[in-house]
Write a structure and sequence with these properties.
The protein is α/β, with parallel strands linked by helices. The chain is about 30% helix and about 20% strand. A hairpin with a 6-residue loop joins β2 and β3. The longest helix has 16 residues. It binds threonylcarbamoyladenylate and magnesium ion. The site of magnesium ion has 3 residues, from loops. Magnesium ion binds next to loops.
């Protein structure tokens, strides 16, 4: 098990040596290393068992730092950063050569964001390098939203977890890129499409093909529990299935099932997002053969939840 605590100086010393530290953010916990040091970045891929074609997000402390790492900031990117940073928004921008190619899997763009969590903000202010940090879970599995989640899955492979409590948003950042003056959403996340559009007007969705080189990490199977999971209309399903052998993930309804988790009894999608990954972990531990999950209302952050539920489901 890794040591868990709130001591930024321990984290800083480990990072300065090239070691990895798990850090809290408002979205999910990240597995952080020095983004400018290829050996630390390589260790991130190794610990996560992540294929090298799936690039990492670089975390900086504020907007002022951005120009050190990217060649150019389009006007839409600047508007979005000024509105939403620190916060759950990642910008894909043309990288400078100071960012190792390993970070971006050889792409000429780098994903950058400024996380909104006081501990990690303080940490970033005391080091003179940015942090490359993917979600702190083994590749393909459920993302962690508490220090305990990280310890369960990666505790034997890292030395220290900065404990910042439960993540406030609970779902990863929204990733946007810029092409020919258009703003393109590459991953739905903590900031909804509707909210982005208030700042930059209409946005487009990137093609969902998992083979597209521009979105290498948007693989179809992701965020998955170890048990088989399917999305279903639970109201219909409950009458037809053996409730002893199936666990239900409900949005707000109480289906009175033996094995169930309700994401938000009051029907609030923001609360549902915060509870999503913890709920999937809970369901995965229930004595059942499979998990049935219902989709949530497809609006606001609900779209990002549904994206995760679909990718977590068996094909
Ligand atoms: O909220 C978050 O973004 C969290 C916290 C820790 O900051 N991080 C996170 O990282 O979700 P990760 O590695 O689990 O997901 C990053 C996604 C991957 O799907 C990756 O393919 C995509 O970002 N990505 C990173 N750089 C990219 C780039 N240059 N072009 C296209 N996609 C990129
Ligand atoms: Mg991830």
């Amino acid at each position: 098990m890794a040591e868990t605590g709130t001591d930024i100086s321990i984290a800083r010393e480990l990072l300065k040596k090239g070691d990895l530290v798990a850090v809290p953010t408002e979205t999910v916990y990240g597995l952080a290393g020095n983004a400018l040091q290829a050996s630390s970045v390589a260790r991130i891929f190794e610990v996560k068992n992540r294929p090298s074609f799936d690039p990492l997000i670089v975390h900086i402390s504020d907007f002022q730092q951005l120009s050190r790492y990217v060649m150019h900031v389009p006007v839409q990117a600047e508007r979005l950063a000024k509105e939403f940073w620190p916060g759950p928004l990642t910008l894909l921008l043309k990288k400078r050569s100071i960012i190792p190619d390993l970070v971006t899997s050889g792409l000429d763009t780098v994903g950058i964001r400024c996380p909104n969590h006081p501990i990690t903000q303080n940490l970033l202010k005391t080091i003179d390098f940015p942090l490359a940090a993917p979600s702190a879970n083994p590749f393909g599995f459920i993302s962690p939203t508490t220090a305990g989640h990280v310890n369960e899955q990666l505790g034997s492979k890292i030395k220290y977890i900065l404990d910042g409590g439960a993540c406030a948003i609970g779902i990863e950042s929204t990733i946007v890129g810029f092409e020919n003056n258009k703003t393109i959403v590459h991953r739905l996340g903590g900031i909804s499409v509707e909210t982005l559009e208030k700042i930059v007007g209409d946005v487009e969705m990137a093609s969902t093909s998992s083979l597209s080189p521009k979105t290498p990490g948007q693989l179809k199977s992701h965020y998955a529990p170890t048990k088989k999971m399917f999305t279903a209309d639970l109201e219909t399903a409950v009458g037809m299935i053996d409730l002893d052998r199936v666990a239900l993930l409900s949005f707000s309804m109480d289906y009175k099932a033996t094995h169930q988790v309700i994401l938000s009894p009051s029907g609030n999608v923001t609360e549902a997002a915060k509870n999503l990954f913890g709920a999937l972990r809970q369901l995965d531990k229930m004595p059942v053969e499979l998990i049935l999950a219902e989709l949530v209302p497809d609006e606001g952050i609900g779209r990002a939840i549904n994206d995760r539920l679909r990718r977590a489901s068996a094909k």
